Amino acid sequence: MKKIILIVSLLTLVLAITTAGAAPVKTVTVEVDGKAVVFPDAKPYMEGSRVLIPVRFVSEALGAEVKYSNKTVVITKDGKTISMKVNTRTVSVDGKEITLDVPVRVKQERTFVPLRFVSEALEAKVGWNSEKMLVSITTKEAIEPGTGEPSNPSVTPNPSEEFKWGKYTDLGAALFKDNVTVKEGNLKFTVPANAEAVWYTLANGNGEELKAGKSYTKALGSGQGYLMITRIYPGKDYVEGYAVYLDVNDETLNGSYNGLKDDGVVSTTLVINGKMVETAAPLSDVIDAAKKRF
User: Phi and psi of 262, rounded to 5°?
Assistant: First the structure.
């Protein structure tokens, strides 16, 4: 099975987005084969710009068996076995290792994983209806023979494609125009105001929070992970988010940028016409595009 790739960035819309002043949140409905999934206690939440869900409820709704022992979750269905250890990014699907873009987490005594991963690992399709705030998961048993491809399939970043910008780009302008620089193997930047930033590596599984308004220098290269920088637009049901990879050989990128020297990779996921479209490009190209656009 193909490695699960990055950034289900704007599936953050699946999560609650608050208005300024902590008004009541908007939540979405998660359905499996047309039936709502009930989360009795712990709810989906956002980390960076990814949505994590309690793995047991969605897995069982997909007809899988879930067991937990020694900080390891094991999901089985139709002979397929998925094993994931808490606080790691590496999971096993039928013995094949896959690298997630965020670690498996435990909150409120529930184990959380990226929404899309568990669904697609169990051969289900995932769709997003922005008007209804609805995530639709369809099992392979419910799909009629001869139907088309998943409505939102995972794709590998294509270096030949032009980087796409979303509906709101205040963060992109503040981050990539006259801010981020790469020199002598280091990336220097200041976290823009009204933004949240986290630096993730295999060594700091929980991530290191970076403060808005503060300047940082991070080395480029193997094992340096990536930065997740996001901005929520209150009242607009929109999250702008970018993953800036310091390690261009990160497994999440599926080898698309191997060999890129003294550079990073920027990736984001946009919702276009109700479908998620992933776009990625070398950091130097995104900086040039930002200077021309903004």
Answer: 45, 50
Q: Has residue 18 got a pLDDT over 50?
A: no
Taking every pair of Cα atoms in the chain, the longest distance, rounded to a whole number of angstroms, is 55
Comparing 231 with 26, which gets the higher pLDDT?
Answer: 231
Q: How far is CA 176 from CA 105, 109, 140, 276, 287, in A?
A: 31, 39, 41, 23, 5
Residues 6+ apart with CB under 8 A from 175: 189, 192, 195, 229, 242, 290
Gyration radius from the chain CA atoms? 19
Above 60 in pLDDT, residue 12? no
Q: Quick check: 152 and 7 in contact, CB under 8 A?
A: no
Q: How do residues 201-231 score in pLDDT, each as one tens digit?
A: 877 766 788 999 999 999 999 989 889 898 8
Q: State residue 171's pLDDT score.
A: 94
Tokens at residue 168, please? Answer: 């709101």
Sign of CA dihedral 165, 218, 107, 81: positive
Q: H helices within the chain, ranges in order?
A: 55-61, 115-121, 170-176, 283-293
